[in-house]
Each structure stands twice: as structure tokens, then as C-alpha cells.
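pasting for ref
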Amino acid sequence: MKSVWQARLAAVILVTSGNTCVAAAQSSASEGAVDAPTMTKPIVGTIRPAATGWVPIVVVDVDKFPWDTQPRYHAKSKTFFTGPNAGLLVYAVWPPTWDTRMPPPVTPPHFHYYHEWGYTLKGDSVLPEPVSPYQKNGMLYRKREGGWLSRPAFSLHGGSWETGGVRAQFPYHLLIFEEGDGSLVTVGPKGDHIKPDFPGQTPDPYMPDWKAVKNFTRPWLVDSQSDLEWEDDPQIPGRFVKWLSDDMADGFRAQLVKIPPGWRPPAGSSKTYFANANRLRFMVSGDMRVWNFKNPQDTGQAINARENTFIYQPPRSLWGYGTGEVTKEGAVWLEVTYAKGLSVGGGPIEEPIAAEH
């Protein structure tokens, strides 16, 4: 019988679709590293980790992942990671505007009963951010490349201005994670609780009464290019970070991480793991090798990661390094950590645990 590690490693080295297996391609460029396998189905995240044993990290080349047959958000989309019951990580692309007309007015804003976050990979979008369900012209926020958004439950957004407005200028590439079921509640005279991207499905529980909300919340919006500067990583010498969010009580943290060309880990670096935390990485630029380890004694298998590669580190997976340089060109990635499961509220986040040899 296969071990847990062997069974889950099958998702990394071989992807089975019907009777077809797609093997990870050998790369001649990175000292024995292999390319990530071509996957066609979303990874399912871990909510309740095992108490013992080891599981692999999972690496997805999002560029090769298929587009959703039922697109999200009125855009082209790829849903490449989900929670077992709720939660959707989506790569979405909106085209630019092809005319000079302003968006039509009186589209109502909405909110969610769950937290969501998003990072702008390319282009720009205009986000209406009202503070009241009765507001006609909410604040317009232009979210550009490098823009970070952490939106709590009950945060009003969307809709349109009744007078004037602002238009997006370029194609918009967004990485977005919804911690819930994809449902939303619209406000106004025709307010409803719906799942706009899943026709025929009704939210369960169905809670359309927006007037029952006692207080609407506000999002955290950061332009990481103009609002933040790189600083030394306090945990790993030679790395640099930008702090996007660090909600300690909620157990939610997001950073941009940068390593320079030719970077190698500090001498004596050990393999580490989380007992409960989930860590999600998405390559923004550059190249990097990541290693899969069967156990703390294993020398590991290197996997190539490039721009638009997703790296999932579930609980009880080993994170560490093999021999040689980690990157040739340098790398920047988004790193999001949940203390428990794949939603806020499980804090604080544990420190990485050194694996015993």
C-alpha cells in the first residue's frame, strides 16, 4: 500500500487524467531540477493535517493550467487551488476597455460573508469602495501592478457611480483568493444573496437581508510599489521582504519576498515545517528552485519555478534547500500564510519547526 507521502507525491510528479499521465519534464538548465507537471485539476488544500508523517509540497505551472470552462468574474479565469469545502484561488484576466463609454450607472455594491485577498500581477482596475449601502458615489481606488488588497467580511465594494467615474486603462491580471463559497450579497431595493458565477446554485445558508448587518467594514489597500520599500528579512539573511498584511490575532500574513541572482541559503540552514499552518507562494518574477523532501534525511528533488508558478506548502511538508544556488536570475514571490486551515481566525501563526534528522 502506498504511504501518504507516496500517494501525495503522485500529484507532484505524475498527474493522472483518465488514462493519461503527464510526467514532469526534465530540465537541462538547473542541475537536475525537473519542471512542474502539467496539471488539469485544482489542488485541494489541507484543513485538518495529520499528526505524524510527511507530505510533499505541490508546484503548479499556472501558465499551463487550463482556463475555466465556466469563467469567474466575467473574465478569463483559472481556478487552480481550492479548499476541501470552500475557498477558491483564481488567476483572472480582464481585457482593456475597447470603447470610450463610461460604465453604466446604478449597479449596486455588494459584500461577502467571508474574507478575501487579491494581488495585482499586471495592469490596473478601478475599485468602487463605498462606506455606506446608501452611498451613490463611493471612493474610486485605482489598483495597479503590485497592488495588495485584504478585504474582511462585510466590506462594501463594487457598484458604479451615478455621476462620472473612472475607467481602467490596461488589461488586468489578478490573483484572488476567496475564503468562502463565491457568494455575494447585493444591497439596495433589489438586494439578494447570490452566486453569480455558479448559475442555478443558491447559497447555503441563504441570507439576503443586507439591512441586518450591524456594521460594514473597510479593506486594507496597499500599493506595494509606491507605499512600501524592501527591507531585510528578519528570519533569513540575504532575503528581502515587503510586509503587505500581518493580522496576528486572525492568523493571516502576506509578504512579498525577493532574493538576488545566485542566492544560496545561509550555511547550516535546516529543513522546517508547520504543524498546522498553510503557506501559499506565487512567483511574480524570476526563477527559483524548490525542493521536495520525503523525510528530514532525504536529499530532495528540485523543481523549477518561474513566473506564474504556484507553490503550495501544506502542514507537515518540509521546506528547505538542496545543493547549489536557489536562483539564477533572482526571484520575487507573493507569500501568504494561514495559521490554521485556509481562512482567517486561527491565529497566531506558529514559528517554523526545525525537522530533526
